[in-house]
Amino acid sequence: MPPTPPQEVEVAVVPWLARVRHDLVKRLVWPARDRRDAGGAPAPGELVPCLIDDEGRPTTAAALWSHLADEAPAGLDLGPFAAALAAATAAAAAGEIDGVLALEAAFDDLAARAQRLARSLNP
């Protein structure tokens, strides 16, 4: 397959990041944020997101991330975000609000690295 032109990489980063944020990050973070703002301890399972795949079937955060990672811009280091997602998923299962909310910072870091990568390919 021929290499992707730099302009296409830069353009492709934005919708990919939007999908990661919409389909995955907000589904984990919003319930934790709501619980934090409301106060009190989360009920068992309250922070565990109900996720769906592209075909509307229930899925896990790990499976959804695997699919999204396959569509990531080439050359983007996904390791730090993958580790943060695993930690946030474990935190959700344990009812640890701060552990889930840490995913926001990890996403912001992923987005910044993706945008730097796109700019570096399109000087």
> Overall mean pLDDT score?
91
Number of strands: 2
Number of helices: 4
Taking the sheet with the most strands, its summary is:
2 strands, antiparallel
Low-confidence stretches: 1-7
Structural class: mainly alpha
Distance between the termini: 23 Å
Number of domains: 1
- Mind telling me the C-alpha Rg? 16 Å
Question: What would the principal axes of the Cα set say about the shape?
Answer: globular
Describe this structure in words.
The protein has 123 residues and is mainly alpha-helical. It has one domain (6-121). Helices cover 68% and strands 3% of the residues. It contains four helices and two strands. The chain has helices at residues 6-38, 61-70, 79-94, 97-121; strands at 51-52, 58-59. It has a two-stranded antiparallel ribbon with strand order 1-2. A hairpin with a 5-residue loop joins strand 1 and strand 2. The protein is globular and about 50 Å long. The model is unreliable at 1-7 (pLDDT under 50).
Task: Write a brief structural summary.
The chain is mainly α and 123 residues long. Helix content is 68%, strand content 3%.
Q: What key phrases describe this protein's structure?
A:
single chain; 123 residues; mainly alpha; two-stranded antiparallel ribbon; 4 helices; globular
Describe the SSE topology.
Elements: H1 6-38, E1 51-52, E2 58-59, H2 61-70, H3 79-94, H4 97-121
Antiparallel strand pairs: 1-2
